[in-house]
Amino acid sequence: MLDHTLRGYKDRLLRPLVVPLDRVSPNVVTLLAMVVGLAAAVMAARQMVALGLVLWLASRILDGLDGLLARVHEQQTDFGGYLDIVADFAVYAAVPIGLFLGRATAGLGVSLALLLGSFYVNAASWMYLSAILEKRSAGASARGELTTVTMPAGLVGGTETILFYAAFLIWPGALPWLFLAMAGLVLLGVIQRLWWAQRHLLETPVHLARWPVREIVVQDKANGAVVDREIAVFDAWGGWSGDEKDVVEKDEDVDSIVADFLGGWQL
C-alpha cells in the first residue's frame, strides 16, 4: 500500500550506493539478499531474534538495491525480475517458519498456517491479475511502473511486510496475534482486488476493443491528398481502423489518446 508512495524516497536514498557498482550484477545482489534473509530465518529459529532482526533489515536493503542497480546501469532483464520475486517469496516464507520452529506451540502453528495460507491466496490473486493486465496492454509499461510486470496493490505490500516482520522479531511473544493480524490484512487485500476485478474484467478485453476518437483526416498514402474526414477508431494494440490509409489526428496526438485510455485501468 505504501510502496508506490515511498519508492521515490527509497531510490534517492539508495542511489549513491549503487552508482559505483557498475560491475556488479543485480542478480548477485538478489541472491545475496535471499541468503541474508534465510540467515535471518535461521537466527529466528535459534531464538536469536536481535541478530535475526538485523539480518532481516539488511536483506530488505539489499532487495531494494538490486532493481535500482539494474536501472541505473541499464542491466534490466526479465530474468532478473523473475529471480527477484522468487527470492522474495522464499524469504517471506522462511522467516515466519523460523520463528515458529524457535517456539513451536499448537496455537502458533495454527496462526502460521493461516498466515502462509493467506500468502498463497494473495500470490494467486495478484499474479494472475497481473498477467491479465499485461495481456490487455495495461501492465507495467503502460502504467509507467518500474517493475518487470505490474503488481496490483493490496493492503499489505513490501513496506508493510518489512514492518510486520520486524514486529515479529521484536515481539516474539505476540506472534500468534501478529500472524493473525497480517493474515487478515493480506486477505482483505485479496478481497479488494477481487472487487476491482469484478468491476473491470467483465468488460470487453482491451485487445479486442475498439474505441472512438475525435474527428480525423484520412490521407491517401500515394499522394497525401485528403480523402475523407470522419470519426475513426483507435485499436488498443496500436493501429488504426481502415485499409491502406495513413490516419492523421486532427485534435490530439496518439500518445495522449493511449494515456487517456490506459488511465482507466489504474488500480
Topology:
Layout lengths: L2 H16 L7 H20 L3 H24 L5 H25 L3 H30 L4 H4 L14 H13 L4 H26 L9 E11 L5 E10 L9 E5 L4 H10 L4
Antiparallel strand pairs: 1-2, 1-3
Helix pairs in contact: 1-3, 2-3, 2-4, 3-7, 4-5, 4-7, 5-8, 7-8
Give an account of the 3D structure.
There is one protein chain. It is built from nine helices and three strands, in the order H-H-H-H-H-H-H-H-E-E-E-H. By secondary structure, it is mostly helical. The chain has two domains: 3-200, Four Helix Bundle (Hemerythrin (Met), subunit A) (Up-down Bundle), CATH 1.20.120.1760; 206-263, no CATH class. It has a three-stranded antiparallel beta sheet, with no helix packed on it. Helix 3 runs antiparallel to helix 7 and helix 5 runs parallel beside helix 8. The chain starts with a helix and ends with a helix. Residues 206-215 and 231-267 have low confidence and may be disordered.
Structural class: mainly alpha
Instruction: Note the gap between the termini.
Output: 11 Å
The radius of gyration over CA amounts to 24 Å
What percent of residues adopt helix (DSSP H or I)? 55-70%
H/E element string? HHHHHHHHEEEH
Largest sheet: 3 strands, antiparallel
The largest sheet has its strands arranged as: 2-1-3
CATH class of the largest domain: Mainly Alpha
Q: Superfamily at the CATH H level of the largest domain? A: CDP-alcohol phosphotransferase transmembrane (TM) domain
What's the mean pLDDT score?
Answer: 80
Keywords:
Four Helix Bundle (Hemerythrin (Met), subunit A), 267 residues, 2 domains, mainly alpha, 63% helix, disordered C terminus, single chain
